Amino acid sequence: MALVNEHLMKLPDNYLFTDIAKKVNSFRVTHPKADIIHLGIGDVTRPIPEACAQAMKAAVDDLTRPETFHGYGPEQGYDFLIEAILRNDYAQRGISLSPSEIFISDGAKSDTGNIGDILRHDNSIGVTDPIYPAYIDSNVSCGRAGILGTNHQWSNVVYMPCIPENNFIPELPTQRVDIIYLCYPNNPTGSVLSKNELKKWVHYALANDTLILFDAAYEAYIRQPDIPHSIYEIKGAKKVAIEIRSFSKTAGFTGVRCGYTVIPKEVTAATLTGERISLNKLWSKRQNTKFNGASYIAQRGAAAIYTPEGKEQVKAMTDYYMDNARLMKRYLDGTGLKVSGGENAPYLWVKAPKGFTSWQFFEHLLYEAHVVSTPGVGFGPNGEGYIRLTAFGERKQCEEGMRRICQYL
Amino acid sequence: MALVNEHLMKLPDNYLFTDIAKKVNSFRVTHPKADIIHLGIGDVTRPIPEACAQAMKAAVDDLTRPETFHGYGPEQGYDFLIEAILRNDYAQRGISLSPSEIFISDGAKSDTGNIGDILRHDNSIGVTDPIYPAYIDSNVSCGRAGILGTNHQWSNVVYMPCIPENNFIPELPTQRVDIIYLCYPNNPTGSVLSKNELKKWVHYALANDTLILFDAAYEAYIRQPDIPHSIYEIKGAKKVAIEIRSFSKTAGFTGVRCGYTVIPKEVTAATLTGERISLNKLWSKRQNTKFNGASYIAQRGAAAIYTPEGKEQVKAMTDYYMDNARLMKRYLDGTGLKVSGGENAPYLWVKAPKGFTSWQFFEHLLYEAHVVSTPGVGFGPNGEGYIRLTAFGERKQCEEGMRRICQYL
Description:
The first copy, chain A, is α/β, with parallel strands linked by helices. In chain A, 37% of the residues lie in helices and 14% in strands. Chain A folds into 2 domains: 14-43 and 309-408, Aspartate Aminotransferase, domain 1 (Alpha-Beta Complex); 53-306, 3-Layer(aba) Sandwich (Aspartate Aminotransferase, domain 2).
């Protein structure tokens, strides 16, 4: 008889965004005429850059002619995209990487989930709290997270609180941790790490032989000069960090599906006998076994992001969202609510009025202002008492939503 | 210190198609002017159907307008594609499935690899020999395959020989096996299972509480009426089988990346205490955690396969390849070589002349006829003494290749 992976059964049946959808639906039943404004899910709304669209249509045309047809591509991705990435995302920031250190994929969620395949099931993991839930869930599903305690914490997970007392910047763990997830600019708090802050983490990792999984999906939203876009801007990071990037938020690719992961040749982890193994080589084996490359069309679209027109259009798009964030922040600041984020990230992290839990504030905003937010507690215990608002909406909607919230408050 | 998954290190460094590429490259160095004909890798060469191209270009256009923009899609896939699949691939064959039993993905290789995530690491597995290597490799990489013996067999894998004595149709295992991989029409032998043959496997699975992973990637090449296109044509299969499908070979989507997996609600596996768990629900959890849906563009392209024009164009394409197969078979039959497959599958399984190993025959074909084949031993020990030829080439190339082989022989 075939046996199931029982670890997967430990994952809760209720998924944050499904719960939100259910609550929105019940509201809709009783308020069929309400004009709901969605600032909850972190999904983009602006059209993809015209340069990407043109490139993808040309790529489709390539597939219609025998002489330009593309079948299976290289599992690691096409050179035309890898080279554009190396040149623009790294060389221009003084980071030297080789083509074989870049792995193109169908998106950051696949990579952050699947990267666990190359690591032992009993490594301890460290996460900031609050955090994007998929990091923990993917570890729960293979048993790496351990057992869920009555305190809602997993036994093999070290939680690093991001709270107002530390300006939502986590402190280094006091114990050794094998693998640490960092996401900067941060989802959900919208906070960022300065170069000096990030240095501390790289030094911790070097000193403790820790692997850092650095999620830089929101780097295109960084506006201040001192904020590193890549962890490899820190000396020594190539020895300890894997960086995961996505075109989803950079260029509106949430529906196109393309991202990439950087695994420098120097990053190693150990066998039980202490032998150091290149994670680049292991990930390459994993991908060769279980992945057949990202779509040729999506890769052509992604490469167009790096053309002069593409860069301009991406800048205009991320500027649009950041203008939303600024506008939203201005409104909310006026209400006396405590708001952080929104300066180098498309997320606002809003403290609920005194006495409100995340879900209570969520419901009030839904019923009184017809605005959908995301309850902060859905991102972890330290998210309790907060909501997350995204700046990915249409300008008028964002403004109208804020007006209603101000009115209600 | 982070520890690696040491099971991944058991995978051989040399990958079949990389080895082939190396041998071809050395040939090229010594024969720079040779016109090499590639009938090795199972990749398509014909343009994608015009209907799919039109649909994908329209999908790209959708992404350029705010009112038709598509961001994150449903993790399980869009209804427009799921419904087309249900209607055309299943209802028309008398198989009733519900939308939530279909999971759209970026391709069959991802699904056949990742499906192991929902199953315990110590289930025994059964494979035909020869076999598509990724089935075994994905099990090796999580420890499920056990230890590699001196006989080149993994300790937790039951091998079911496909040899001339059984007409390349495997016999039921004499022992219980937890999970069995079946791929029909078969890669690499090109053999098929009749309805009666497939029935035996479903009955075995029902009697032994075995899970069947049925890879039907080549079903579009079936030409005879008695050959089942889906395992669910067999009564009872919904209790024991997961079916994996791909648009890669159906519509030239190897570069587009789209496929799907069917997990009926009735398929269950057990916990250690004997509780039966729905694999549909577990896979849904796995995908929600580690996957963000297939590309909107690819899904629109795939849906176009099911339009009247799409169907006609797919038929023309698969007919083209099957005409290649027929032509190739006719040539090879004339040489006295023993050839099977090629009637309901785009692969020819060719016995090497007496005394030749797979690699020796491969090298002879390369150096004497300038034709690239795939050594059968790359698919497993029982592939020794065979080569695989694919019918996915351009017509003139296939014919010229056969002419050269005949001349050389």
